[in-house]
Amino acid sequence: MTKSQPFSHPQVKQTAKSYFEPYAARPLWRSRLAALWSSALALLASGGALAATHLPLQGQTVRIAFIDPLSGPAADIGRNSLRSWQFMAEHKSGADNPAGVRFVVAGFDNKGSPQESLNALKAAIDQGFRYIVQGNGSGVAAALSSAIARHNLRSPERAVLYINYAAMDPELTNEKCNFWHFRIDADTTMKIRAMTGFMAEQPELRRVFLLNQNYAHGQQFSLFFRETMALQRPDIQIVGDVLHPPFQGHDFRADVRNIQASGAQALATGNWGADLRDLVKALHAQGVYLPIYAYYPALKGVPEALAETGGRMPVYQVAYNHSNQEGPIHALATAFRKRHGEDLTIYASFDGIEMLSHAMAHVGSTDPARVAGRLSGMIFKGFNGPVHMRADDHQLLKGLYVSRWQKVGAPHERSAEGTGYTFAPVQFMDASRISVPTRCQMQRP
User: Fold this and answer.
1) What are the structural domains, with CATH classification, of the chain?
2) Taking the alpha carbons of 260, 265, 271, 272 in that order, is the dihedral positive or negative?
3) Got the DSSP string for 17-29?
4) What is the mean pLDDT of residues 130-134?
5) For residue 327, how many other CB atoms are within 10 A of its CB?
6) 56-73: pLDDT as tens digits
């Protein structure tokens, strides 16, 4: 850490707690959400017993169209995501899911463009796909969600269901919500509440620099971070707030100099992919090792860049998973790395396949309209325990981890990208602590 940044980063803690003191008076909706978890495991257990003896749709195939960048500057993330969905589809097909269906995932390259995504959507529908998966880019997500709603209104006999696994714009489950869209990642407001809550607990932290990609995601990160941190710790100063062009080979050297000059004690960023890798490399090249708070440091290539710093850069990830997840996802992540030589990072693919199979088993059909009706409000067992697809807006309510980059060691022994370092959990915030009410006025068919 440079001399101008005396802030000492926090050490790992094991106790979970609420960081949102300004929101301490929980409204009724939050109490009801918390109560859901107490009955969820019993419901899931009874459903599992039924599924073990009855596969109502055995022999049927469900084809899923994956629409995301498979070429261009974000292609490495897109291809890893596609492999994640294909891997989960393979391993949770047939007798390994309660419906007995076989899942097949096919990739459609949208080149990161909303228009190319609409072209891919039309091609997928024409080829008979009735399930769509997408995650990289909220602008793309908004275009797909709107187009799918129009298509389903015109052609209900060919209805399409859309699973959004990573596009975090809160409007997608608020003003732009629609019945056919289901988000299985936390939105930006949820992640920012977790991030700022954790940062606010660090008493020595006074000055934060924001650096983000200049599109909806980065702009919202900046806006919500400022608003939420002002409620948590009004004494913390935002000493820089920079937006840069996304995925254009941006040179971060000048940004690093500005970060140093600002006296920032921490950097918060929503950057991902090449833009996060290049930022880490620029910080390392100039010997700036201040703490970074981010959403996506576990995505492909970033752990390798972090490892080059020799552990001198404290990094905190806010995400629904960490490197050492337990349960069935642990063995799947090990098998994925063995097959593909890269980390499984899109754990949402587990939840997506799991929720579809349970909904299909319950309604005894693969028809998207019937499946959508069952998904709305459904509680199911995700990779980290029970989760709830809120009926009001189709936002999956799940907890978030803050995990810290550190050397592997018991009990956190799974290495990220074979680097000898890992993301170890520091805190967990359950859904009732980070979720907010929805403004969605959903029109149901």
Assistant:
1) 21-26+189-319+400-433 (3.40.50.2300), 55-186+326-337+345-398 (3.40.50.2300)
2) positive
3) ----GGG-S--HH
4) 98
5) 13
6) 899 999 999 999 999 999
